Amino acid sequence: MKKYSLLPMLLFIAIVLVTGCQKEGEIVKAADEAYTPVKVLPVKTGTIREEAVFTGQIQPIKEVSIMGKYSGEIAQTYFTVGNNVSKGDVLFTFDERDMRHNVEALESQVNSAQAAVNSANLNVDMASGSQEKNQRIQMESSLNSAKITYDNAKTNYENTKALYEDSIVSKIEFDGVEQAYLQAKNAYESLEESYTLLTDKQIPEGVSLAKNQLEQAFASRDALAIQYNNAKETLADLNVISPIDGTIATKNIETGEIYNSSFPAYTVIDMDTVFVTIHVTDQLMNTIHLDDQVYVSIKTLSDKEYRGSVYEISPVPNQTNFTYPVKVKIDNAHHQIKPGMFAEVQVIKNEAKDVLVVNRNDLELSEGNWFAYVVKDDTVQVIPVQLGLDNGKEVEVIEGLEPGQLLIVSGREYVDHQEKVTIIE
After folding, report:
1. Which residues neighbour 299 within 8 Å (Cβ) at sequence distance 6 or greater?
2. Distance CA 81, CA 380 (A)
3. Domain range annotation of the chain
């Protein structure tokens, strides 16, 4: 591994040119002290990670489209895009005049419907209670009277008939008694049929009719009550509030315009936490788990590295590219990260902590072996090293180096083992 460096010779020539007016002994001395300059860094312990890098676009953890339940004129709006709101804050209100009139009209109709229910209920009570009893009493009284008249007429008829057959009474007298008997019989039978009709049909039908009318009154009142309650709820909903803490992302209404409830009036997003969706190949899928810590960098912001965690892993692949969507959430309490920014997510495949970590470019690969150039007592020592974890930029040194050793990081190509060097800043 012997190297031939031009640097010492160049330094020597430069010294000769600069000190040409000095004595020869002084020139020789300067040349002897002109060792190859190198830069060094102490070997330190640290953490090295082997990562898989993914990109994705930042999105808010919550995004709520807020729609009014009522179509009408906007009386007032209270927030605009970029404002922060708390859960329960009123975002906008409707003009309540028309709705209040509607509520009052429906309240009056409900009261009238309730009066109809009360009247129908009274009719049912009468049809199945006192009214039914009175009808029965009256009919039973008439029927009893007719029965007595009929029984008397029948007795008189039977007695007169016997006398007539014995020629004791005349035919005219017998015919008169017979006629009275037949009239009493017809009257009694007619009342008996009426009583049967009343008790078996008319009273039940009357009760049934009254109950049907009561049911209709209830249905009419209940339908109006539903409209009334809905109108009251709508009146309460004329003040439209934010359901979450967040920031106004969009505002689609202005005071005085007529709002149609078919589109969102506001959109509120929660930026205290944001997330990014990455798409993981099947080779890495089983190495990622819920709550795994990841590292997120957003180049448009700064070189700062954010911590994130896996909170959702899809068990099925995307049918477009057959990768698995994985969601990573990032704390964003200061709202520095904005939705729409592009992020790099570093998923840790392997990690080693408290190990010797050096830059891969600060080592030399020769014939399949790795070597480190360190300086001790201003003398180069070429040391074979064994490497562990390698992420392509940094490597773990598992054998050959110790913490604190001075590793040459610049000028290594100009020196060799046991060569004297000058350490420069």
Report:
1. 342, 344
2. 64
3. 1-34, 35-47+353-423, 50-61+267-351, 68-90+241-259, 99-236
* DSSP-derived pairing of the beta strands 369-376 and 406-410: antiparallel
Of the candidates 420, 253, 276, 284, the one whose C-alpha atom is nearest the C-alpha of residue 343 is 276
Task: State the chain's mean pLDDT as an integer.
Answer: 84
Q: What are phi and psi of 249, to 5 degrees?
A: -95, -40
DSSP 282-311: HHHHTT--TT-EEEEE-TTT-S-EEEEEEE
Q: What are phi and psi of 421, to 5 degrees?
A: -140, 165
Q: If DSSP codes are grouped into helix, strand and coil, which group holds residue 52? A: strand
pLDDT tens-digit map of 129-164:
555 666 666 777 777 887 888 788 888 888 888 888
Judge contact between 90 and 77, C-beta under 8 A. no
According to CATH, the topology of domain 50-61+267-351 is Elongation Factor Tu (Ef-tu); domain 3 (2.40.30)
Q: Does domain 35-47+353-423 have CATH number 3.30.70.2200?
A: no
End-to-end CA distance of the chain: 26
Q: Is the pLDDT of residue 167 over 90?
A: no
Give all strands (DSSP E) within 164-283, no chain letters: 239-241, 246-251, 258-259, 266-280
Q: Which CATH number fits domain 99-236: 1.10.287.620, 3.40.50.2300, 1.10.579.10, 3.40.50.150?
A: 1.10.287.620
CB proximity list for 323: less than 8 A, separation 6 or greater? 279, 280, 281, 282, 317
Q: Decide if 207 contacts 127 (C-beta within 8 A).
A: yes
Averaging pLDDT over each range in 55-69, 104-118, 181-195, which range is the top one?
Answer: 55-69
**Could you tell me the pLDDT band of residue 262, with boundaries at 50, 70 and 90?**
confident
Nearest alpha-carbon partner for 358 in 383, 324, 326, 393: 393
Query: Would you say 378 and 424 are in contact if contact means Cβ atoms under 8 Å apart?
Result: no
Which residues contact residue 79 at a Cβ distance below 8 angstroms, ignoring those fewer than 6 apart? 85, 89, 91, 248, 251, 266
